[in-house]
Amino acid sequence: MSDRDAPAPDRVVETALRLLPVPDHEPGFWERLDARLAAEPAPTAAAPTRGAAPVEARAAGSDAAPVPVVPLEPADLSVIPSAMRRPSNVVLSVLAVAAAVVVVVAASALVRSRTGGDQPADEVAGPAATEPGDPEAPGAPDEPADPQPSAPAAPAGSPETQVVVDWVRALAAGDVDAAWALLGPGSQAHWGSRDAFAAQRTDFAEGYGAWAGTSAEQVLVTPLVDGSLSVVTLVGPVEQEGARNVRADAFPVRRVDGGLRLELYASAGPVEVVVPGAPLDDGTPATVAPGEELVVVVPEGARPPVLRIDDGTVVTCGQDAGTFGALEGSPGQRCGYRPPTLTAGDHVLTVAVWRGDGAEVTAHSVRFRVR
Amino acid sequence: MPSVDHLTEPELIDRARAGDRSAFGVLLRRHDDRMRGLAYRLLADRDAMDDALQEAYVKAYRALDRFRVGSSFGTWLYRITYNACIDELRRRKRAPVAAEEPDDPVSARPGPERVVSAAEAVRAALADLPESQRITVVLVDGEGFDHQEVASILGVAPGTVASRLHRARAALRKTLGEEVG
Q1: Can you list the domains of chain A with their CATH numbers?
Q2: Using one digit for the tens of pLDDT, what is the confidence trace for A316-330?
Q3: 10 Å Cβ neighbour count for A202?
Q4: If you average pLDDT over residues B148-153, what whole number do you get?
Q5: Which residue from A270, A341, A206, A357 is spatially nearest to A47, judged by alpha carbons?
Q6: Cα separation, A106 vs A16, whole angstroms
Q7: What pTM does this model have?
Q8: Which residue of A has its CA nearest to B159?
Q9: In this structure, how many other beta carbons lie within 10 angstroms of the beta carbon of residue B6?
């Protein structure tokens, strides 16, 4: 025993547990498993390649592989002011500008040249379907995707929000240079070159760029590292391909050389949201019971995840009340959080993990419904 | 196709990584007893056990390229299985877990004219525990983890492990004493 204060094993209970006969599998278990494995790529072939999956956040039930093994590192408490991690402090941690931030670009900017499938609600939109430089990628580099927007309205909100607004505006306008310049060094390194990034610009316009021309119902700013790293979450209805979906997209914003840049592709690894889980096919958010634990799994070596609810609650896993974390040796770091008070209705959960000073960061937002 | 049954674990892992499902199957079957033991004690239900293990084994296959050579495959698989069981518990949202009807009518639920087996009593007693207590007692008394390890796994203080364990053991002893004694 490593815990010298631990009581001795209970031999009666221990024996009783060993008495419990463990049933064999139901008939057909191995056949079903083999059929499922047959549908999987070989593990080595499934290893992620650069640019193959820029959107790494995933929800429960997705096909992504579990993340590798490690314990939660003790967090550097200095990176997030304690007050900002407390549920009671709404003002410092939240910038909920309901319907105030108008990310307006001419609606016509979204109408033309749309290709590809629907963007599911609650997924981070992005160019996951094509490789950088993929000759099949729609559109050619430098070709304007859409008409130039007419007189974009100046958005309200924080500087971090402004960067996000500028970026989606640039995407919708097909302004590759502006969009490229707003990416941080990690994200630029991910793409390798401006041209590789530009090759995806039609997908971008359909994904993140779809925020242009709409009004975000909520803009949530979650500070992570003392003014140098935050996550901006846009929540609201987005028109795509004639369909209107309510989305919640997370945008990591990092201060680089005195300016703010988006680090959407400087991934710290995949994040799995086990509870509340994925939305239904029709976009309806997953439902959780009042008091139910929210569960996320975050990658190896990352700092303990920060979870934030749209009501202003911001907690660091394993440090703040109501959280539990750390599964040493597990395929990923598991974090649970039981929000003390969560009203019935729709909410947004944002999960963020990062490494070091934030040069690698993954953020994911998902809508969910409390019964 | 030649049998892969005789291959060593590292050899099986290499083959499985390259997509050899029969090699992966052999690997799984070598560890399946222990995985079923964990899953059944945690979930107390055969269907749930199978569902959790299906998920665990598929996830293990997907993650096989990230398995660290030189470390224990069994321990690695055990952790994945544990996670899958916790997810299965949450999905089923059952606390306490509903008792499963045993296949053997002789060892069915205890009744005045029926002698319940000790094993059935243990299973029912486990199922009646709150999830947090059940997990704790299974990990400590069933799987042999020490308190510090369980505290780390569950993300709670060792003192919490001790108190949950105390309550779980007391409840099990009481239930088993009533039903079997």
Answers
A1: 11-125 (no CATH), 161-370 (2.60.40.1220)
A2: 887 888 887 654 444
A3: 25
A4: 70
A5: A270
A6: 70
A7: 0.47
A8: A6
A9: 9
Report d(CA A219, CA A97) in Å as an integer: 5
Q: Are A55 and A124 in contact (CB under 8 A)?
A: yes
Whole-number pLDDT of residue A263: 95
Alpha-carbon gap, residue B158 to A97, rounded angstroms: 42
At residue A163 the predicted structure's pLDDT band, cuts being 50, 70 and 90, is very high
- Listed in sequence order, the residues at least 6 apart from A128 whose beta carbon sits closer than 8 Å to its beta carbon are A53, A54, A55
Distance (Å, whole) CA A44 – CA B109 = 48
b/e map A326-362, b = 16+ CB within 10 Å: bbebbbbbbbbbebeebeeeebbbbbbbbbeebbbbb
Query: Looking at the partner chain, which of B36, B153, B154 has a beta carbon nearest the beta carbon of A22?
Result: B36
Inter-chain touch B155–A325, beta carbons under 8 Å: yes
Look at residue A352 and give its three-state secondary structure.
strand
Q: Please state, in angstroms and rounded to a whole number, the distance separating the CA atoms of residues B44 and A240.
A: 46
Our CA dihedral for B165, B166, B171, B177, rounded to 10 degrees, sits at 110
* Chain B hits for A60, Cβ within 8 Å: 87
Q: CB A37 to CB B24 under 8 A?
A: yes
Q: How far is Cα A103 from Cα A152, in angstroms, rounded to an integer?
A: 8
Task: Please check whether residue A327 touches B, CB under 8 A.
Answer: yes
B142 secondary structure, DSSP code: I
Query: Residue A210 — very low, low, confident or very high, per pLDDT cuts 50/70/90?
Result: confident
- Beta carbons within 10 angstroms of residue A264's beta carbon: 27
Beta strands in chain A (DSSP E): 58-59, 102-103, 214-215, 218-225, 229-240, 243-256, 259-262, 272-275, 286-288, 294-298, 306-309, 314-316, 323-325, 333-337, 345-355, 360-370
Taking contacts as CB-CB distances below 8 angstroms, the residues of chain B near A44 are 17-19, 65
Cβ of B73 under 8 Å from any chain A Cβ? no
Q: Does the interface predicted TM-score (ipTM) exceed 0.90?
A: no
Point out the residue among A7, A19, A326 whose CB comes nearest to the CB of B162.
A7
Strands A333-337 and A294-298 turn out to be: antiparallel
Q: Where does residue B99 rank: exposed (0-12), middle (13-18), buried (19+ CB within 10 A)?
A: middle
For residues A101 and A157, the answer to whether their CB atoms sit within 8 Å is: yes
B19 to A43: CB separation less than 8 angstroms, yes or no: yes
Determine the 3-state secondary structure of A216 from DSSP: coil
Secondary structure (3-state) at A144: coil
